[in-house]
Amino acid sequence: MFSSFFANKKCAVWAYFGLAALLISTYAQVQMIVLLNNWYKDFYDILQNVKDHTIEDFWTCVLRFAKIAFPYVLLATMTNYFTRLWTFKWREAMTFDYIKYWRNVKTDIEGSSQRIQEDIYRFAKVVENLGSQVADAVMTLIAFIPILWALSGQVDIPVLGKSEGSLVWIALTVSIGGLAISWFVGIKLPGLEYNNQKVEAAFRKELVYAEDDKANYGAPEKLEGLFHDLKRNYYRLFLHYGYFDIWRYMFGQSMVIVPLIAMGPSVLAGSITLGVMMQVVNAFSQVRGSLAVFMNNWTVITELRSIHKRLKEFEKNIEYKRAKLDENLQSEQA
């Protein structure tokens, strides 16, 4: 999967320079979000202290927002476009690398067409979605943890008081705790997704054979039996996703109120302004959201683990590692 793109000399420019360009672009977007976080403080302080500001101050602040937001929209659009190109290049490299070794295998491999076409396509889509979010999360943590750490000194948090980095530790604790519980709650999902693909493939295979030979394939009893297996697996999958969603939505809603509870006493005591509160809320949300990126994408991660499992099984069937090693040895000898 990875060597097809990153260890391929033909794809080196796309693989490494493309990745570097995406990371630089993501970092630039995060820096713009930092500017917006500072803007929150100034804007809400104007709204809180209207007697100390004029309408010109208000519109100047709005114009400042536009100067940050419009370039951000342009850069984000260009980054998304390039990300799609980059992941498609990865898909292209994987597809033809697998085809090359698959054609040399003499035995039939069940579901090979699905592995090469559908699973590689889905792998690329998940990488496009999840990979960009993870990169953004890492950059956001690098930028916002120092900000949130500094803001913690201004907030008198219940029980903890004005302790150094308290808001960072709260965000870290709830995020890691949420991820650990999510892993436990959703532990059966990858296996069910894997089984789901197997029963889907069996049902689809019977229908494909029936297109050319209805006399021997596609009997109603056979199709009903295959669909019954499919339905039974889906119902189990829906059940497990059901209680996982209960936990996921409950956790997500509870995180909305955490920074407000933490800062409520300080706001009521007048020790911080509304602007500082909104700045802290935004910074806390950025850090907590970045730490929770895996939990928020648990369904996508489950799908990725299932796809990875099937592709590794396919690589084993086409003897991918051995064939790749032989090819590298021949290249060195030449």
UniProtKB/TrEMBL annotation:
The chain crosses the membrane at residues 68-86, 134-155, 167-187, 256-278. It is a multi-pass membrane protein. GO terms for molecular function: ABC-type transporter activity; ATP binding; peptide transmembrane transporter activity. SUPFAM superfamilies: ABC transporter transmembrane region (SSF90123). GO terms for cellular component: plasma membrane. Keywords: Membrane, Transmembrane, Transmembrane helix, Transport. It is found in: Cell membrane. PROSITE patterns: ABC_TM1F. Gene3D superfamilies: ABC transporter type 1, transmembrane domain. Its main location: membrane. Residues 221-303 form the ABC transmembrane type-1 domain. It holds the Pfam family SbmA_BacA. GO terms for biological process: peptide transport. InterPro entries: ABC1_TM_dom, ABC1_TM_sf, ABC_transporter_sub-D, SbmA_BacA. This is Transmembrane transport protein. It comes from Campylobacter showae CSUNSWCD.
